[in-house]
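Figure 2 data, in text form.
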Amino acid sequence: MLVLLAGIFVVHIATVIMLFVSTISNVWMVGTFNSRPISSGLWLLCNETCDQLPVSSDDEASLKTVQAFMVLSIIFSVIALVMFIVQLFTLEKGQRFYITGAIMLVCWLCILIGVSIYTARFTGGIAVFANPHHGYCFILAWICFCFSFIIGILYLVLRKK
């Protein structure tokens, strides 16, 4: 049981780190412009220098929503990690980690909403891109989506022994 808890804890920390990286880095979409690599993220458009992401007024609300949900997912993931540590030392034997699991599933839902909106609205890339494709941050966000769901369910099922 101790090995299982330690494994879940390590995966949870890895998920938090991957969420930070995927939200902060600007490599959600990658392409070329004038034969030079160019990438865009949630915040900036980068080639040799980084500039404000050029978004139409129709897509601006969608981008702000994606940004908000990805930041919320980081916050909920960190809160779930802290709650797990608190519950690890305060729960009586035989109790389940309900609060931690519920918070982690809220994190999962925030990732789902944020990445789904990004997929629906921005996967075609920015108009200046040639050969747009998804970058590592987009893929990391989907990996975090899977990990947070699995961790949330495991927290709900696990009992403290």
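Caption note: Residues 80 and 100 are 5 Å apart (CA to CA).
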